[in-house]
């Protein structure tokens, strides 16, 4: 083990760079289908959106090649509009503008859902291969495009030059239903006369190792298909495609597996016919999500030699991607690079927690200078163990190349405590590393699957930090693809049946994630697409229930510490009541007639919950998670709510102010405490430095989020290697509490409107912090909330965009006589800013759009900043 007791501050070159084209001066960058300037849009009537609500009626203009195609007027308060589908033609670039407010662009795709008729070429079940075809190009008016797809992963080259920046294209889907294509423009890249199109093809998720189940899960060998099309005044026409005339060559990648690793060597000479293979009977559609890209590089920070000929590079933090080498070989060499998250006591690479994942790359090189890296594999690691290196390995001989689906950054959280800053960085790093085509649980061991609960509990935090709309909407389609005919929802998406179905909270992601996308982005399309599957899931759960009680199934409060288990039937019944309420809300949003039906069903299930698990306000089985779900999901009667919250507070004190929650309870515990008048206890839990806690991970040198609270324990060392990831974003769900309840930036949790238009700004200063500030580029505009403590009091600052409602709650006490707002005494602004005194003495008021600064004197805020003797600082 190599545990670092300090907090790391690692800079990542190029990480978290949003891939957004700059908007014209004075205008915002607009999105089409949730993406900036997407190429290959097949969605019917694509939605144009901008991150502000119009303050008056506004005109939207759509044009193609400088010619106006469509003009429409949107009413005040709008932040999006749908383009009539019949106006759009295939393979056409469009530009659009909302009269000085926002501008964007998009290029349509083939616009022929499922009608993919280009032949398919087979690959190798283990190796990467090169498939090549030549064609003659005669320059002509119009634009030329490459459309390519695969069962597996591919890379495209034209005349020896790589096309595009996408990695591991076209990503992972449920291959029983669909795969996706990407569109790349060739107009300025083709040369008159002969051109060569080359496709590198590897097994990828389709034929490689997946989820610990070995290779060839979906098929025996990968396949690829591509076509070159020209769009002119007569419409699109195909000028070249994969076919039997193509040739196949060795790529020098005899082993190319996502999980196991890759071998790179000089390719063998010679060619052979590529052959063709039968086309899959599935949809081939444009990818609606951002592509996987290189988001940054990071040099090694040190190199050690724990054994002769064995050198270990430390990159300073846990990352996801691959290693690039710069080698000066005096003669032939065979270099082996193995990857892992931890070291053993002797300084060697620790790999037990990888299970069957080899994470081993090999480079067989001749004499000379080389810059080499894999192309078709993916590793989770902090350390790289190198053998076969010619001489002493230096840190600048290698660098980590970071891969992610490259979601744009939308949120930031600034705090005064370096440890909390490191925690926020760790949350972001785990998010980026586990967003490679699908939202995965972990990037290192042989599992690497799209676990539903992980993204369900982390989704709100993630959607503050990154723009998730297109990415998660695409994943919801994959989740729906995996739903069984009886309505049961899988635990992972893409579905792997052996991982199971119908676990409460896990399978309820089918409801939670579309609802999240509606609340954050006003995305009623994903909600509409998921609505009938939601109803099938609800019907399945109700059929499995006994007088409103769902039987305890599967995973419960996964990985909760402590000895008292929250009854699984309690979690199951609570989750069902929650989903039924959300489906009722979805019905109302979509104008469906079923809202009363689901409201009534939710009431029945809630009554059953109270009969089975509550004696008045108290749970029969006392657990933090039990109280958290009962309070968060409104299963306690209103008259019992305060008493139930006090019972939870008493339990937290009895547990030594330590959390005892797992995947279900952790995202709810601190918010519930803060919302029910026990913010001080939430802060005590958050500030804990002993096990189990977030600061415990930081003290142990964590640079990403851990799967388990005790992934490493100071008494017992490493947890069981059969399931112990050091890069797992689920417990990063605390980020939502930091945004909403510490910095105070959130939407109203009781609201049902879309697009982040119902703000609740409720800062909650935390002992040990002196400042916290959050900023979020929401679908309705930039929102800010924060506070700064000083000897004379606390300053609260807010920014409210146009067209939203904003309720601010200031945690002050006593007289407000000395409070000022933007330099003017608050008591003199009763007409402009009417205030309400809350039961706890706090101040609530509705904020108009603008920037606001409230200064509360020490007499009104001294209660916020008291230190506790038992915090151990």
Rg for CA atoms = 28 Å
| Global outline | globular
Uncertain segments are 1-27, 867-873
Structural class by SSE content: alpha+beta
Average pLDDT level: 93
Describe the main β-sheet briefly. Answer: 10 strands, mixed
Cα(first) to Cα(last) distance is 26 Å
Key words describing this protein structure:
alpha+beta, globular, single chain, disordered C terminus, 7-stranded antiparallel sheet, 873 residues
Task: Explain the layout of strands and helices.
Elements (H helix, E strand, L loop, with lengths): L27 E2 L1 E2 L6 E3 L5 E3 L8 E7 L2 E8 L5 E3 L10 E6 L3 E7 L12 E2 L5 E10 L5 E9 L1 E6 L2 E2 L15 E8 L7 E10 L1 H4 L15 E10 L2 E7 L5 E7 L1 E3 L3 E4 L6 E3 L9 E4 L6 E7 L2 E6 L2 E20 L3 E8 L1 E2 L5 E2 L9 E6 L2 E5 L6 E9 L10 E7 L6 E5 L2 H16 L1 E2 L1 E2 L12 H14 L3 H13 L27 H13 L2 H21 L23 H23 L4 H19 E2 L2 E2 L4 H9 L8 H14 L11 H10 L3 H9 L6 H6 L12 E2 L3 E2 L15 H10 L14 E4 L9 E8 L2 E10 L2 E8 L4 E6 L9 E2 L2 E2 L9 E3 L5 E4 L3 E8 H4 L12
Parallel strand pairs: 1-9, 3-9, 15-23, 21-30, 41-45
Antiparallel strand pairs: 2-4, 4-7, 5-6, 5-8, 8-9, 10-17, 11-16, 11-19, 12-15, 12-17, 13-14, 13-16, 17-18, 19-22, 20-21, 24-33, 25-26, 26-31, 26-32, 26-33, 27-30, 27-32, 28-29, 34-42, 35-36, 37-38, 39-40, 42-43, 43-44, 44-50, 45-49, 46-47, 46-50, 48-49
Helix pairs in contact: 3-5, 3-14, 4-5, 4-6, 5-6, 6-7, 7-8, 9-10, 9-11, 11-12, 11-14
Describe this structure in words.
This protein is globular. Strands 20, 21, 24, 25, 26, 27, 30, 31, 32 and 33 form a 10-stranded mixed sheet that branches. By secondary structure, it is α+β, with helices and mostly antiparallel strands. 21% of the residues lie in helices and 31% in strands. The two termini are 26 Å apart. It has 15 helices and 50 strands.
